[in-house]
Design a protein that fits this description.
heterodimer; A: alpha/beta; Rossmann fold; 12 helices; B: about 250 residues; alpha/beta; 11 helices; about 15% strand; globular; binds thiamine diphosphate; binds iron/sulfur cluster
Chain lengths: ~350, ~250
Amino acid sequence: MADKVLMKGNEAIAEAALTAGCRHFFGYPITPQTEISAYMAKKMPKIGGTFLQAESEIAAINMVYGASAAGVRTMTSSSSPGISLKSEGLSYLAGADLPAVIVNIQRGGPGLGGIRPSQSDYFQATRAAGHGDFHMIVLAPTTVQEMFDLTIEAFDLADRFRMTAMILGDGMLGQVMEPVDISKGKEQEVIEKDWALTGTKNKRKHNLANSLYLEAEELESLNIKRFERYKQVEELARAEHYLTEDADVIVVAYGICARIAKNAIDEAREEGIKVGLIRPITLWPFPKKDLLKASETAKAFVVVEMSMGQMIQDVELSIRCSKPVLLCNRTGGMVPEPEEVIGAIRNANQEGRS
Amino acid sequence: MEIVFDRPKALTDIANHYCPGCTHGIIHRLVAEVMDELDITGSTVGVAPVGCSVFAYNYFECDMAQAAHGRAPAVATGLKRAIPENMVFTYQGDGDLAAIGTAEIVHAAARGENITVIFVNNAIYGMTGGQMAPTTLPGQVTQTSPYGRDTVTAGHPIKVCELLSTLEGTAYAERVSLDSVKNIRNAKKAIKKAFEYQQAKKGFSIVELLSTCSTNWGLEPVEAMKWLQDNMLPFYPLGVYKDKEAEV
Ligand SMILES: Cc1ncc(C[n+]2csc(CCOP(=O)(O)OP(=O)(O)O)c2C)c(N)n1
Ligand code: SF4
C-alpha cells in the first residue's frame, strides 16, 4: 500500500512507461495529453533516458520507428489531430513489424475540433490507423490505475507480437486524479530481439527494417502471415462484466463512458430493471465472444459512446444484429449524463419486452 | 600479384539496379570504402530513403532501415538516440530531403543530431519518372515543368548546404561533385570527414553530391556529365559551407 500515489491519468501512463523499461520518448505538444510529455521531460534525463520534443507528430512517430528498429522500448503520445499525422508512421511500423506504444488521449473532431474529451477516433484506431492491411492492439483504460496497468501490458504485447499497441483514452481520463498502486505489474517479459538494428558487430548478416515488397505475391504472403499472427492476438480479447448474469439489457461502453454507465446501471437496478455492463478492455481485438454469448439471454443492448456511433457497429456485428441495439451518444466533446443513459436503458428494456 | 582495386567489403555482393551512367552507384562505393577504411561496418546503421536509392538497404553490409519518404533524418534520430555508440547515416535524394522531408532535415541539423547525411542532388525526381525537384534549375525541363522551371510560378531552387550551414547544430556541410576523377576523390574525402565528425561526436554532418540522372535528363551518360558541369556546377558552387573544426 505504501506505493499508492495520487496521479493524473496522463501521468500514470508516463510513469507506467518508465516502469515498463521505456527510455525513449518522442512527442509533440497537443491538448489534452501534454502532461505525458511534461512528465517524461522531467524524469527521462534523471534516469539516462531520452525525451525529445520533435518538430512534428510525423517526425516523432518516425523517431519511434528508428528507436524501435534499434530494439529499445519506445513510446509516443498525442491527441486526435496529431494521431492523424502519425498514421503514415503507424503504417510503416506495421509494415516493418516493429513494436511501439502509441497513446491517443482523444479530443473532439473532425478537424481541429475542440479540446474536450471524445471517443470519435474509434474507427481510426480499430479500422484504419494508416494505409494498408494491418491492425494495432487497442487497449481502453477506464480508471487511472488501469491507465498504469494497461500501459505496461501494452509494451509487453507490442514486443511479443511485434506490432504497435495503442492506449485509447480521452481527455477526461487524462485529467482525472486517482490513487494508483505503482508497485503493480513490475514483472517484465524480456524478449530477445534478434531482428534489431544494433550493428552487425561483423558477426552476423545485416538486419533490415523494411516494408517495401515490389513482388505482389511476396507482399500478399507476408500480409497473410501477419494476419495469422493477429489470430493469436484475437485470443486475448477481453472485457469486464458488471451485473450481466441475469441481465435483460446489456450496456456496452468503454473508457469514461463505462464509468458513467455503471452509475446509471446501479440506479436502473433500483428501479427493478435487470441491466448489466460489458466493458471492452481490448477494442482491437474486440470481445466479440462475450457479446455473442450475452445475446443468447439478453433482450436488448445499449451502446454508450462519445461519437456519432462507431463502436455500435462492432456490437451489432458481434451479436449478428440478433437483438435491438440502441445508441446513447454525445459528440464534439460532450460527455453523456447518467440520466441520458438511464433513459436509454429504460427504452431498451421496453423494446426488449415488446 | 598485389590487388590494387577490389570491391569494398562494406558492399554486398548484389548487382545494383541503377541505370547505366547513374552516379548513385559511385556514391554507394565511396560510402562503402569509407566504412571499410574507418572499420565501422559492424557498428553502422544506414537509413535508406524513398527514391531510386530505396534499395540501398540491399547493397550495404551494415544494418539498414528503410524510411518513409523524407523521414530518414527522424528515423536516424531514433536509431542514434537508442544506441549512441553506433554510427548512423541517411542516404537521401533531393526530392526526399528538400521537398517532403524539409522539416525533418532542418530540425535534425538544428538539433545537432550526431548523424551523417549523404545527400544526392541530381536536380530531378528520378524514381517517379523525372518530375521537378526543389533543386531543379531555373529553366530546366522536367515532366512537371515541361516549359522549363519558371521561378515565378514554381519558385526557386533550394540550396541545401547554404541553408543548413546557417544552423548552429550543423558541424560540417560540404558540396562535392562526381563529374571528374579529381572531384570523386574530393567527394570521398568529404564523406570520410563527415563520418569522422560523427565519430568525434561533433554534431550534424552533411555531404551534398552533385549527381547525374541521365535517364530522366534524357541524355547519354557522357552528355549528362557535361550537363552537370555546364549547368549545375555554376549554380551549386562546390566547397565547404560549414566546418566547426575550422572555426575554432
Ligand atoms: C508519401 C509519398 N509520396 C510520394 C511518393 C512517390 N515517390 C517515390 S520516389 C519519389 C521522388 C524521389 O526523388 P529523389 O528524392 O530526388 O530521389 P531520386 O529518385 O532522384 O534518386 C516520389 C515522389 C512516395 N513513395 N511516398
Ligand atoms: S532514374 Fe536517374 S537517378 Fe534513378 S537510377 Fe536511373 S539515372 Fe539514377
